[in-house]
Amino acid sequence: MIDKTREIALKTLYKIDKEKAYSNIVLNEMIKQNKGKLQDRDISLITEIIYGTTTWRLTLDEIIKKYSKIKLKKISTWILNILRMGVYQIIFLDKIPKSAAVNESVELAKRYGHKSSSNFVNAILRKVNKEDYEELFNIKNDIERISKTYSIPTWILQRLTEKLEIQDIEEIAKASNLKPKISIRINNLKTSKENLIKKLEKRNIKIKEGLLEDFLTLENTKNIEEIPEFKQGEFTVQDETAGLIAIVLEPDKNDTILDACSSPGGKTTYLAEMMEDKGKITAWDIHEHRTKLVENTAKRLEITNIEVEVNDATIYNEKYKEKFDKILLDVPCLGIGVLKRKPDIKWQKEEKDIEEISKTQKQILKNCSQYLKKGGKLVYSTCSILKEENEDIINEFLENNKNFEIEKIDLSKNDKIIDKEFFKKYQKDDKYLQVYQNDYTDGFFICKLTKNV
What we know:
Layout: H1 4-19, H2 23-33, H3 40-55, H4 57-67, H5 77-92, H6 98-112, H7 115-127, H8 130-134, H9 142-150, H10 154-160, H11 166-175, E1 182-186, H12 193-202, E2 206-209, E3 215-219, H13 228-231, E4 235-237, H14 240-249, E5 256-259, H15 266-274, E6 280-285, H16 288-300, E7 306-310, E8 324-330, H17 345-348, H18 353-369, E9 372-382, H19 391-400, E10 404-406, H20 420-424, E11 427-428, E12 432-435, E13 444-451
Parallel strand pairs: 5-6, 5-8, 6-7, 8-9
Antiparallel strand pairs: 1-3, 1-4, 2-3, 9-13, 10-13, 11-12, 12-13
Helix pairs in contact: 1-2, 1-3, 1-5, 3-5, 4-5, 5-6, 5-7, 6-7, 9-11, 14-15
């Protein structure tokens, strides 16, 4: 009899492959479809297998190739994902006996393949052991070794060699596979840090102070969006580096601010909270369904100073010329800094995508810089760590716009930042912050510009 949890995991992985969908979205859909049929431990195992198999896909494929006489591209998507799931359980999940991983995989192969498929799966998985993974660390070439031991495409690693030493690249690759921490931002418009901590502790949630004043890290918590305090708008889920981007803009309650790429609304609503729900924020996104996410987030947090519009920031509009005191541009990017949250990116993005995305980034910066008042401030940011999307964009912009200059991000004077030393180590020549993914946060690039009078 087929194990329901593994079958759901398999169907999810198949859909991710065929539709190039994001794992978190497909997983949520699958869980909703099976609501009432799954216990918490089932959901935990499904989540573990999906994220683990997606995260370690390149490594898993290397091990499969070692024992398969058939090339991977000739194996059906169903059977290949069954093999990946099985290898992942054998190599990385110590609590699952190898016999269980093998047997459940064989049963799935019988349903989603044919008799020879189940024999094929059985033959490969019975040979797999933890030593197969350990052998990969003996590869002499550094880029190849890091790629195969941490499951990172070589093109990403090669790009990073342009500005980083190999030991730093390896640390970034290692951090990209960590399970992301659950970081939340306190809505000071509705509660205080002390009150929220008391409420969450009563729910037996372990809490740690964040790197930033308005943030906490939660442990041993599940279904966070079902917690009453979340529903009541007392907090929202946000990575701390994403929060830092809003802090760097230094919003004032009298400001008129543009957030030109605002969805899903985390940074937009943090700006609003720091402005005490005063002033005015104009929030854009190119798709209506994405602007709805911003509206829904603002509504839950009971924020009223955000005006949401469907707008394409790559198209210049004269009516916005010099209209805003401050502008936040968290532009579309390849997302190489958030691989631990979105491991699908590794397999969906390609090196050739850099040229196209950088064109979009340049166009948004060029257009929106004209919407800034003289003396105004603009923060450009990405959740990427590639220089082509970050410092190269800024350098080219400054070459063509002499009325702009980089403003030093002064961490020492900002009382919203608790652990100033943590972020200071990522500050580059007083020009920008390039945070690489680490034990605590995602990877982000942040640069602040001033428009001269």
